[in-house]
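Field reference: sequence -> structure
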Amino acid sequence: MSEQTPQKYHQAATRGTWVQTERAGHEAWATLIHQHPKAAQLLHILVAHMDEKGALVASHKLLAQLCGVSIMTIRRALVTLVDQCFIQTVRVGSERGGVLAYIINSRIAWADSRENLKYAAFSARVLVTSSEHTESLEGPELKQTPVIGLDELQLPHGPGLPPPTQDTLDGMLPDLPAVKKSEQMDLIKP
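Structure field:
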């Protein structure tokens, strides 16, 4: 990472952080940089944060923060990106309270095998910021369901719960299996 790259764009190097592009996509992107620099900047941000299927859900406010521009600039840049077929947008929720899912044109950039690109519209990475929420994103610790791996065994611990029991109903005695004396005598006879 160069000295001039802002730290907020740096992502930890983990598996699956690469993206691929086609030469024709690079040429189209270069033309976009010249004609609409803010739209090209936004496209870089979208590609940097998309999931392996090429999709991302984020608010205009958050995208404006990431690009260091106004929300109106983001809206104009999105219109340019959609009109020039760099991205497709899908509304999630209502016009007033929803957000857009941005699906990157797979001829521009992708991060999964080419065979899996047809599923791009069915998953997305969601970016949120604490400035858009009234509650803290930290929140209380959530309950987790334990997961057992293939080579692991379940080891119960703790006091546990008593086994479930049911009282007998009035006037009804349980019919427990028993051997009667006459049957015992028949079993003993040679």
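Note: The chain has a mean pLDDT of 75.
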